[in-house]
Write a structure and sequence with these properties.
Layout (H helix, E strand, L loop, with lengths): L3 H12 L7 H25 L7 H23 L1 H11 L11 H18 L3 H19 L8 E7 L5 H11 L3 E8 L4 E7 L4 H9 L4 E8 L7
Antiparallel strand pairs: 1-3, 1-4, 2-3
Length: 225
């Protein structure tokens, strides 16, 4: 007599029957994934704006796409293998924090490419690559606001602050005093400004009697609109 458990087990296994995957399909899928991953490699190298370009991270994008594609192909072969694979991957922990949002986008793109190609929808991966490249390139060339400049002024006396800020206001409509360090007989000001005539501003500040030094530093923070 067939029990309810046997009926459920049979229907479950029939619903998730193994898929025959020959060697030619596997080779084609891996090669096609490698081509798109190489394209991701080239786009990341073109888009990278960091001071130190991480070649290791870029190579890992290619490796991640290939590994994920191989996992998806394996999962399709058997429901038992897929459950075991999920259990094995659940213990993996990545503790390296990705601070750059652009790196996170490329990593997710690489993973998505492996999943899509491994599932047998390679044409969708091509559409994703073309659409994402066009959108990202357009946004990259989209005009942004002028990045602020950090101005550091060293003065002999505390009374020079008003004169310094008056000169700054002539060359910058919007400025913010970020730090004010006062010593026994000297003053250090750190001011965030947006100005097109930075060189002229530095000359004007240097001409003030009592100003010992002026420095202008650019930073990669948020732009000011």
């Amino acid at each position: 007599m067939i029990s309810i458990r046997d009926i459920i087990k049979k229907s479950f296994l029939e619903g998730y029957s193994a898929k025959d995957i020959n060697l030619e399909v596997v080779i084609f899928t891996i090669l096609f994934t490698a081509l798109i991953a190489a394209y991701i490699f080239a786009v990341y190298k073109r888009m990278c704006r960091k001071t130190f370009y991480s070649r290791e991270f870029n190579i890992s994008l290619v490796g991640v796409a290939l590994i994920v594609a191989a996992i998806i192909i394996t999962i399709q072969s058997s429901i038992v293998v897929s459950l075991g694979m999920v259990g094995a991957l659940s213990i993996v922990r990545f503790r390296t924090a990705i601070k750059n949002p652009l790196d996170l986008m490329f990593l997710f793109w690489s993973i998505s490419t492996g999943i899509i190609c491994g599932a047998g929808f390679a044409e969708y991966a091509v559409v994703l690559a073309v659409a994402l490249t066009i959108i990202v390139m357009l946004l990259d060339h989209f005009p942004a606001g002028k990045a602020p400049i950090i101005l550091v002024v060293n003065a002999d006396t505390l009374e020079l602050e008003k004169s310094i800020l008056d000169v700054v206001s002539e060359y910058s409509k919007h400025y913010t005093v970020k730090a004010r360090n006062i010593y026994s007989s000297s003053l250090d000001l750190t001011i965030e400004i947006t100005s097109k005539d930075v060189s002229e501003l530095l000359k004007k500040l240097s001409s003030i009697e009592g100003v010992k030094g002026v420095s202008a530093l650019a930073h990669d923070g948020e732009t000011t609109f």
